[in-house]
Write a structure and sequence with these properties.
- It contains nine helices and two strands; from the N terminus they run ααααβααααβα.
- By secondary structure, it is mainly alpha-helical.
- The chain has two domains: 8-156; 158-298, Four Helix Bundle (Hemerythrin (Met), subunit A) (Up-down Bundle), CATH 1.20.120.
- A two-stranded antiparallel sheet has the order 1-2.
- Helix 1 (12-38) runs antiparallel to helix 2, helix 4 (128-152) packs parallel to helix 8 and helix 6 packs antiparallel against helix 7 (240-265).
- The longest helix is centred in the N-terminal third of the chain and has 29 residues, at 63-91.
- It starts with 11 loop residues before the first helix and ends with a helix.
Length: 348
């Protein structure tokens, strides 16, 4: 009688690598999506899901804009394949974990929503509200995948604060303000000159000076919170991971603020706007890392055991059998070692 086909189990190391690749891909698709908009290629493929009425591939009459939009759709297909693979892999882990499965399926559902929203954005001729929603949903997907990557690199079990509770609340406030800066950034984009298509497109009816000033005010509040975080993690006894994450966030924030001011006073050139989009993505990921570093998670349960070292031969001229005193000492050491092992396996 034939045995039913069973899929092989997956090691946590493979799953960790897959989550790390997913972080890179989801960040990359944000940057390439910005390039589509900034080059006026948002309607390079004028319909969806096909690129033209009778083909999924771009046509020669669509020129370079068609190739840019078609290339972004191909990259989206690759990202979609990885998003579909993650939940399946999470179900085949050697030790299935509910938190990893839920986060992985959350990515899958979020990506399906992103596909639908992207299609609506094309069908409604790049309405700024849909363009903004498309970008913000990407930020939510990054939140999901960064949390998934963090948990995949840790073991199951309860967490404990990496410092005082005020550090945890400060990091939550930091992420909230960073999210508000991203939302205001989409309002500035929907009001500004880069509509995503070379033809005239619908824009928000706000005054660009006012919304840009509001975005800058929120960004300055974020800078203040980043400075407070960098100082507080040092005096609050936070972990090294939290210190490193706050340092990285500080560097990215300063660079992002400089790019933002330069692009505003130079008439928002395309290259600087694209750099600003990449910086916003990096800043969001860095802020999430600061927040997630404020708690300590258990170490992975299946770390590979180190192989035993070579046994040294006994010195020449000495007996190889231990006397009573040596045997008693060895027995005492063995008992202590066994107790240490039991203590090391006890839960924190």
């Amino acid at each position: 009688m034939r045995q039913p086909l069973r899929l092989p189990t997956v090691s946590p190391v493979v799953f960790q690598r897959l989550t790390r690749v997913s972080v890179v891909l989801l960040a990359l698709i944000v940057v390439t999506g910005g390039a589509v908009r900034l080059t006026g290629s948002g309607l390079g493929c004028p319909t969806w899901p096909r690129c033209s009425e009778d083909s999924f591939v771009t046509q020669s009459e669509y020129s370079v804009h068609g190739w840019i939009e078609f290339g972004n759709r191909l990259l989206t297909t690759v990202v979609g394949a990885v998003m579909l693979l993650l939940p399946l892999v999470s179900l085949r882990l050697r030790e299935r974990r509910r938190d990893l499965v839920l986060l992985a399926f959350g990515l899958w559902l979020g990506f399906l929503g992103q596909v639908v929203l992207g299609g609506l954005t094309v069908l409604f001729k790049l309405h700024p509200a849909l363009v903004a929603g498309h970008f913000l949903l990407s930020m939510l997907l990054l939140l999901d995948v960064v949390a998934l990557d963090r948990r995949a690199c840790a073991g199951p079990g309860p967490t404990r604060p990496a410092g005082g509770r005020e550090l945890l609340w400060l990091s939550r406030l930091l992420v909230g303000v960073a999210g508000a800066v991203l939302v205001l950034g989409t309002v500035v984009t929907g009001t500004g000159p880069h509509s995503g298509d070379s033809a005239e497109a619908k824009r928000f009816g706000f005054d660009i000076t006012n919304v840009a000033q509001l975005h800058a005010d929120a960004a300055m509040l974020l800078v203040g919170l980043v400075i407070a975080t960098v100082l507080t993690v040092r005096v609050g006894g936070a972990s090294r991971a939290a210190v490193r994450a706050s340092n990285a966030l500080a560097v990215i924030t300063v660079a992002q603020a400089c790019v933002g001011f330069v692009q505003y006073f130079t008439g928002v050139p395309v290259a600087l706007v694209e750099l600003h989009i990449a910086g916003a993505t990096a800043l969001w990921i860095a802020a999430l890392h600061v927040w997630l570093a404020m708690v300590n998670r258990p170490a992975p349960a299946d770390l590979p055991a180190s192989p035993p070292g070579p046994r040294r031969p006994p010195p020449t001229g000495h007996p190889t059998t231990a006397g009573p005193a040596t045997a008693d000492a060895a027995g005492t050491a063995g008992t202590a070692g066994t107790a240490d092992q039991h203590r090391s396996k006890a839960p924190l």
